[in-house]
Amino acid sequence: MLDEGHPWPLGAHCDDDAGINFAVFSAHAQAIELCLFDASGTRELRRLALPGRTGDVWHGRLRGVDVGAGLVYGLRAHGPWEPEHGHRFNPHKLLLDPYAREIVGRFDWRSEQFGADPVQPRLMDRRDNALHALKARVIDERPATGDVPEPRPHTPLAETVLYEAHVKGLTMRHPGVPEPQRGSYAGLASDAAIAHLQRLGVTAISLLPLHQHLDEQRLVEQGLSNYWGYNTIGFFAVEPRYASGAGGLSPRQEFRAMVRRLHAAGIEVILDVVFNHTAETDSTGPTISWRGLDNLSYYRTPPGEPGTYDNLSGCGNTLDLRHPRVLQMVMDSLRHWAGTMNVDGFRFDLAPVLGRSDDGFDPHAAFFQVVAQDPLLGRLKLIAEPWDLGPGGYQLGRFPRGWLEWNDRFRDGMRSFWLGGASTRGEFAQRLCASSDLFHVRGRTPAESVNFIAAHDGFTLRDLLTWERKRNTANGEDNRDGHGANHGWNCGAEGPSDDAQVRALRARLQRSLLAMLLLAQGTPMLAAGDELGHSQDGNNNPYCQDNPTTWIAWAEADEALIAFTARVIALRRRLLPLADHWYSGSPERDGLRDLAWLRADGQSLTGDDWRDPSVRTLGGLIGAPGKASLPLLLLVNAEAKDSAFTLPAGAWQALLDTARAGGEGAWHGTASYPLAGHSVTLLSRVPPLP
After folding, report:
1. Is 38 a catalytic residue?
2. What is the span of the domain harbouring residue 79?
3. CA distance 515 to 421
């Protein structure tokens, strides 16, 4: 039996009276049908027109002896087929509910999946695709009696160290993870994986997309897959390919168990989410869900051209968050993952799309306003990738207060300064101090700059020092894909080398760059594998490499580098050398400036010193560290030659020296420090004898 039900919440929801309420948004449809399937999703049993319509929401409540969790269903939308006007309704195509919690079936790139006739694209394709279409399975999400909110670590931002990882890549080759669990949510929650994260001292793991996604047709035809997952098909569904099935758990249950275990270990979970586009691609793409339900509402189109798409994502389409129902879908998805799935924050791919009005990016756009006032989302860690592919798409530093932003100026500035690119001490100091030129001037805090040397997109840290030319031919794009300007240096030999000097230089530079990342002002983000020397063989865009190229080779891990990384993170946690407030250079109570900059001769950096690209040695005298009780001195020598650095008055003790394989500080003294080339040293003033 199907009665009118109610228009909220959107999607399919079990109620307390043995019923399921269905609610679907479509402003331009003329009718919406609910299609019921057998448990396998291969046989269509019934079609029922949703009888209720409230505003632009179609709804109905289904009751019966066979109605409940586990029901498999799809949708058909009736309306005009007028592609030139932006309407692409085709009732011959079964549609996936945008609010599906669990997706049934595996998408095959068959011609029936496309709404338009393959020969005459202006005509509707009338072949039914139900057998091969993705369907939704109803999940009962009502909390059990006595359920209490699960605790979260709630790590303060100033103490946060991010670790960007791929669920599969992190554990697929880890010998300590039980073999059936490798590459899965259960694998990430294993004792061995958690022990490594705790050993490092990271506080939050930032996971590449785990919304269910599709592999693009081109990749499938080449025998590849979208390993990174930036091609969403289900904003509410857990990606099932990373579920081990351990303990008979569903993917959703295994994901939640992973979050609980990480939380118990004091580690927050942040999800990379993709709300800038969907897997339906451009006007030639398949009709899977949003396109068939209400193309003109869900997607942005150029002014006066409703038959095409704005492509601000580079993936063929752009979701239109100017529309209140599209914005609602995004917000409902975020609340689902933060509330039901208990994650601690989100990293937003191509985030300027979320704030684009008719006139470009607006930091006061509706999306940012509704997130700010939300009692759940407003308390989480929100991280923007602050660029997209549209006009004026580079917006670093312009997101609202409280948002964190990936700072590629830190990445490029550090690489250039250390690896021989165009740079100066002025540029270096600016990036080291949370890019105050971008964040301070807009009333932001230093911690809102997410600093990174490497991320999933680009060379790994080891490859940055091994290859100067990308080696992406395995991606099937004739090496045209990936960044061309990497600001790297191969240390004198392209590719792996047996030369002891080259290897030693690469090892020292890895340590120095890691030290810069972890001691800098701002929030550091470590790319998984950089702490143990992971290489992708020079591929700087391995988005389609689900194989040992991207799976971390734990058997080849550099144990000394792991120990070094843990040592620096521990120093950061104990001392926080650069505090989470802006420095002014003004004197403190003991006469020292809160932060002063020195040349190697001990004199203050002034005037042309900041702009001279030929000198890359400097010191930062930190009179007001974040946690240390005594002044700290950070010495930097990005040149090849050693330098005798004149120290400020008093006795000093080395806490860290990247010229040493373990990074140990083994020096006490006054007057001058023997600062090795390509190295970083952190010293603490020794208190005077009583």
Report:
1. no
2. 2-137
3. 19
